[in-house]
Design brief:
disordered N terminus; EC 1.14.13.149; phenylacetyl-CoA 1,2-epoxidase activity; binds benzoyl coenzyme A; 13 helices; mainly alpha
Length: about 325
């Protein structure tokens, strides 16, 4: 990524532009697409926002698999709405990325060629319907902890996209928890399904927040630029503190023998996730990486005719407008 046309690189940027950028960040105001910004700031945002957009789109797959198998019409309608929301989140985020001067088609290409990432969490399988509830509770709960602070991110279009996304994530989390509450009031077999899903999704959910702070190469710079507002470990801790009382209320056990309230810190202590597993999953060797990417690639190819039709329609409209006809 280079600086936008007309936007000089840091070395050659007039000092007043650099100062204005730094002052805007210091005053907690927003950087907008028209403003000068350092190349590194732009690159970091493209990386994070694109990765976030890819995650939303690939994140439709694990739950999407259950739409045809949902146990009732009500559950089917709820799940349909949730998965559709995720497509919408991906679209808001690709639009936010495009304000940085990149093209959505190019970002998709980078994902398909393995040059950009998506969240590790979507490389785990959904084995039973309780997984749908646990994804809502844990994965959307983790998303809320991570994304609410992003509503105050220093880049305007990203922050504004996050406001709407967070409202919808809130509904997603509640639907997951409500589904689990219902299953916990059901049969022993249903309760066992919930506990099994909790056991499988707990540690991968903690890994969603990224590597520990002392192994997070991007955090310091992103926090100085106020793209990220809190460190990975701080957000992970908030998620644990929020989730433990919910687990107690639900009647499930979180699979961590080291989990306990620490009176001095006023927070929960918890065990260490298997960071080698996160590394493996991020580098393509998780349980479902191949399957997820194959599905994403197939969807892209199957959708070629839609993109061509949309482009042809847009060209026709543009030609009509140019000829002075009413569109
Ligand atoms: N998975 O220096 P670090 C959702 C990468 S969608 C994969 O700490 P950073 C939902 C990281 O990119 C959830 N990769 O990085 C959707 C970096 O590699 P690169 C998606 C990960 O950026 C559907 C390297 O590891 N949420 O909620 O400062 C249904 C070093 O990490 C992961 C977002 O995208 C990971 N878990 O912090 C339901 C939120 N963790 O890029 C729900 C926005 C780290 O240098 N993103 N990496 O090659 C963020 O907040 C930050 O980008 C992260 C990582 C906290 C994820």
């Amino acid at each position: 990524m280079t600086a936008q046309a007309g936007s000089p690189s840091v070395d050659e940027a007039p000092p007043e532009l650099q100062k204005r950028f730094e002052d805007t960040i210091a005053r907690d105001q927003r950087i907008e697409p028209r403003d000068w910004m350092p190349d590194g700031y732009r690159k970091t945002l493209v990386r994070q926002v694109a990765q976030h957009a890819h995650s939303e789109i690939i994140g439709m797959q694990p739950e999407g698999e259950w739409i045809t198998r949902a146990p009732s019409l009500r559950r089917k309608a709820i799940l349909f709405a949730k998965v559709q929301d995720e497509a919408g989140h991906g679209l808001y985020l690709y639009s936010a990325a495009e304000t940085l001067g990149v093209d959505r088609a190019d970002l998709t290409e980078r994902l398909l060629e393995g040059r950009q990432k998506y969240s590790s969490i979507f490389n785990y399988p959904t084995r039973n319907f309780a997984d749908v509830g646990v994804i809502g509770w844990f994965v959307d709960g983790a998303a809320i902890c991570n994304q609410v602070p992003l509503c105050r991110s220093s880049y305007g279009p990203y922050a504004r996209a996050m406001v709407r996304i967070c409202k919808e994530e809130s509904f997603h989390q509640r639907q997951g928890y409500e589904l689990l509450m219902t299953m916990m009031r059901g049969t022993d077999a249903q309760r066992a399904m919930v506990q099994d899903a909790v056991d499988r999704w707990w540690w991968p959910s903690l890994m969603m927040f990224g590597p520990p702070d002392d192994d997070s190469p991007n955090s310091a710079r992103s926090m100085a630029w106020k793209i990220k507002r809190h460190s990975n470990d701080e957000l992970r801790q908030r998620f644990v503190d929020m989730t433990v009382p919910q687990a107690e209320k639900l009647g499930v056990t979180l699979p961590d023998p080291d989990l306990r309230w620490n009176e001095d810190r006023g927070r929960y202590d918890f065990g260490t996730p298997d960071w080698s597993e996160l590394k493996r999953v991020i580098t393509g060797d998780g349980p479902c990486n191949e399957e997820r990417m194959a599905r994403r690639r197939a969807a892209h190819e199957e959708g070629a005719w839609v993109r061509e039709a949309a482009a042809a329609h847009a060209a026709k409209q543009a030609a009509r407008t140019q000829n002075g006809a009413v569109a």
